[in-house]
Structure formats: C-alpha cells, structure tokens
Design a protein that fits this description.
53% of the residues lie in helices and 21% in strands. By secondary structure, the chain is an alpha+beta fold. It folds into 2 domains: 204 residues, no CATH class; 191 residues, no CATH class. The longest helix is centred in the last third of the chain and has 45 residues.
C-alpha cells in the first residue's frame, strides 16, 4: 500500500526547483502530450458518432424500418397479410409499394432509375420522403395523373424542373405489327426531393401506386410492404418473430438493408480509435524519458532515502507516484478538453468557417455539409481507462531502476 511518505516525496519531485527546471519542463510537455492525445481521441470518436447518426437518420428518413417482399418477385395483395403485419406488436404503420428498374429520358439525356410506386398518404406514415421535397408537392402523386417526383441529382442529370415532361422507357418490349418496340410512358415532374443520400437523390423516382401498377402491368400484385416501427432498434427482434408467420415472404429490417455501410462505419471507427490511441501511447511513454532523467538527477537523494530506511519497494512506489501524478494530470486535462470540444465542435467549426471565409465540407460537394458530433459516455470511459492504464504502466521501468540504486555507489563521489 502507498503511504503518505511515498506520496509526499513523489509529489515533491514533480514540483519545479531551480536545479530541475529542465526536467520539470519535460514533465509539463508530457502532461500536455497526454492531454492533447486524449482530447483528440474523444473529439474524433464523437465526430464519427455524429456522422453515423446523421447518415442513419437520413437513411431511415428514406427507407422504412421493415421491408416485406418476396424473392420470387411480385406479391399478391391480401387483406390477411395486411392485417397480420399491421397487428404485429411494435408496428405503427404499413404501406404497400411497387418498385422496378427503368430508364428516364429527356431532351436526349438518359438515366437509369429505380421507380417506386407509393400511396402518398400511407407513405408519409412510413418514411419522411415528403419532408425532403425542395420543390413541388408529394401529394401530387394521385392515381391516373402520371406525375413523378425525382431526386435532385437525377433532375439535374436530366436537366428538368417542375412541370417538365420526362419519358419512362420500360425494360419489357412491346410487340407490334411493325416489330418489337420499347414501351414508353410520359410523366410530368411534380416534385424534386433532396434526401442527402446519393443512392436516392441520383437514382430514385416516385410515382403513384396505381400508375406504377398500370405501367408495369402488375395485374393486382405489388412488390411488398414497408412498415414503420415504434422503436427502430427493435427491428431485428420483430423480424425474428414475424418471419415464421409469413411463409415464403422475406422480411428485412433497415440494419440488413444497409449492413455493409454501417459495418464500414464501425470498422473506420475502430481503426481511428487505434490510430489515436497510438498517439496517446506515444505521449504516455514520454513519461519514461522524463522519469529516467529524474532518477539520474536525484541519485544522491535516492541513496540518502535508502540509508534512512526506505526500502527498494518503497522507493519504487515513490517514482510510481510521480509518474501517476503526471499521467493522471494529463488524462484529467485531456478528458475535460475532449468533452468540451465534442460538445461544441459544431459551433467551433462554424466560427472557423466564418473567420476564414470557407467551408470545410462544401455543400456543393458533400451531402453532409456540416460536422456533426455526438458524445457517447461509453467512448469517453473507454478512452480514459485505456489512457490511464498506459500512463500507469509507463513509470514501471524508471521506478524499478530507482529501486535498484545502491547507496554506497551513489554516495561514493559526494
């Protein structure tokens, strides 16, 4: 156990005196290095959490929490299935949809597109697509109007605006007396949305469910249903309970549909944690050089303490105390600074952008044009505990060297 004597001597050795100013300066630099490493680690993890949250919110705004479809293709719309899915605990809303691939053309420009047929009233209960409209009205997707709502990127590629007409080229050809001709259908642009997700903004178009059924000749069938849950993170549990009741139908939740994306984000977060932790480790092991210099500087004092009865084990504790004080001071300062930066990073970035007149993430290039931050208590605790462990391990070797000093040899030339 550490006694007050060992703690007092260790504390005194951290204080600057006229003869040890240089050693104390190096100790201060070590504290600053640990603090900066911890602050950077907490801030970077919070920013990555913020980007993950922002992307998740945008994806969940466009895609449903649950998707029920069939690997065989079309699904017959049955009241029994509607009722079964809608009455599942945790399901708040249900909307049918039809989806198919096609081409959109306008004035010689051609783009591949994923056409989604929806009922605007029901779709608004399942996704937030109606809130992302930059122009037009999602409610304009009424049956038999053949209106279409395009993503901003798709509209820019086709060079169209509200009221323009685009031509949908269907993959299924039409056989006539003149030969095989492509099936075409003209639609009027009734809205343009900006979801902030490239997959949707550049390759997705919405039409009325009845119009999609007519154009794609589904004969009363549809692609499936999309559902909204009371709690999105309960989706895997609900899928496990619902899938056996639907037979051949496939049930997928939002985590399955975007598995690769969120797995990549988690991998990047782990890699960044390791990289930033290495910087903390470098700063923590600067304590080794600091304490080695202290031990060399204070050999005579160590020898005197040994002759006064301080055992090698207690001498080891003296320098372990000094190393712990330096390391824990850096951890405390870095933790406080990191939490403060993580909580105010958006305001700080905005201040820097206004001061220098540029955007770090230009809205013309990036879908997410601000730097979000989300502080997680678990990240802070893991970062502080890991850094504390490194700072407590670093003084072991210098403290061991101090405990091995022989008083007779150290005082021989005094």
């Amino acid at each position: 156990m550490f006694t007050p004597v060992e703690a007092f001597i260790g504390w005194r050795y951290t204080r600057a005196r006229r003869r040890t100013r240089f050693v104390s300066l190096i100790a201060a630099i070590s504290i600053g290095g640990v603090a900066l490493g911890i602050a950077s680690l907490i801030t970077i993890l919070s920013i990555m959490n913020g980007f993950e949250r922002e992307l998740r919110d945008r994806l969940l705004g466009m895609s449903a929490h649950l998707t029920i479809d069939s690997t065989a293709g079309w699904v017959r719309d049955e009241a029994r299935l509607d009722q079964l899915i809608a009455q599942t605990p945790g399901v708040l809303a249900l909307a049918p949809y039809i989806t198919a691939e096609a081409l959109l053309t306008h004035a010689g420009d051609v783009q591949g597109v994923r056409v989604v047929g929806v009922e605007p009233g029901l779709e608004a209960q399942v996704t937030r697509i109606h809130t992302t409209l930059a122009q037009g009205d999602f409610a304009a997707l009424r049956p038999s109007t053949f209106n279409i709502v395009l993503g901003r990127g798709l509209a820019n590629s086709l060079r169209v605006g509200l009221g323009d007409r685009v031509t949908l080229v269907l993959p299924e050809p039409m056989r006539t007396a003149a030969g095989v001709l492509p099936r075409l259908k003209s639609f009027t642009v009734a809205g343009i949305f900006e979801a902030g997700v490239q997959e949707y903004d550049e390759a997705t178009a919405f039409v009325a469910l009845a119009d999609a059924a007519r154009v794609f000749r589904t004969d009363g069938r549809m692609s499936g249903w999309r559902a909204r849950l009371a709690e999105p993170f309960d989706a895997p549990r609900i899928v496990a309970g619902l899938a056996p009741q639907l037979g051949e139908l496939r049930v997928r939740d939002w985590t399955m549909l975007h598995t690769n994306l969120f797995r990549a984000l988690q991998t990047e977060k782990i890699v960044m944690f390791v990289i930033m932790l290495l910087s903390v480790a470098v700063a923590a092991f600067n304590l080794v050089s600091t304490l080695v210099m202290v031990v060399g500087e204070k050999q005579t004092e160590i020898a005197i303490l040994a002759t006064l009865g301080l055992t090698p084990r207690r001498l080891l504790r003296v320098f372990m105390t000094q190393g712990a004080i330096i390391g824990l001071a850096g951890v405390a300062i870095g933790g406080t600074l990191g939490v403060a930066l993580a909580l105010h990073v958006e305001a700080l970035v905005s201040l820097i952008e206004r001061a220098f007149g540029f955007h770090i993430l230009s809205p013309d290039v990036y879908y997410i044009s601000r730097i979000p931050s989300q502080l997680e208590v678990a990240d802070v605790v893991i970062a502080l505990l890991t850094a504390t462990a490194l700072c407590l391990l670093a003084p072991l070797y210098p403290a061991w060297r101090a405990s091995r000093i022989r008083p007779a040899e150290a005082l021989r030339h005094e």
